[in-house]
Design a protein that fits this description.
By secondary structure, this protein is mainly β. The protein has 1 helix and 8 strands; from the N terminus they run E-E-E-E-H-E-E-E-E. Strands 1-3-2 form a 3-stranded mixed β-sheet, with no helix packed on it. A 3-stranded mixed β-sheet has the order 5-8-6, with helices on one face. A two-stranded antiparallel ribbon has the order 4-7. The radius of gyration is 14 Å and the shape is flat.
């Protein structure tokens, strides 16, 4: 089914959607982008994504890397500002090497 949305997949693969930026049942603008995080369901070890909101970019980067994740920084008008958004949310379990977007 094509709802007129663009989909960007985050994560290192898998077949289970563990997070998405637009909640199910929410109206979305045609042509908008939905970010989904795929998780593996094959029993591999996972870690909970830490909450990095409020941290500096350097702190968030170091925290995510320490937990085995790959930080992906989205463009921001103020690179010195604290992290105000992350995808997936804190607490979502992902395998090592999964990408976590921050802004």
């Amino acid at each position: 089914m094509n709802a007129g949305l663009n989909v960007e997949v985050i994560g290192s693969g898998g077949s289970v959607v563990s997070a998405q930026t637009i909640a199910p049942g929410t109206m979305a603008r045609r042509g908008g982008t939905v970010l989904i995080t795929l998780n593996n369901s094959d029993g591999r070890t996972t870690n909970a994504v830490p909450n990095v909101t409020g941290m500096t970019l350097d702190e968030a980067d170091a925290t995510l890397r320490h937990m085995g994740f790959v930080p992906y920084t989205l463009a921001s008008d103020d690179e010195s500002a604290a992290i105000s958004w992350q995808m997936p949310d804190a607490g979502v379990r992902l395998p090592a090497g999964a990408r976590v977007q921050i802004r």
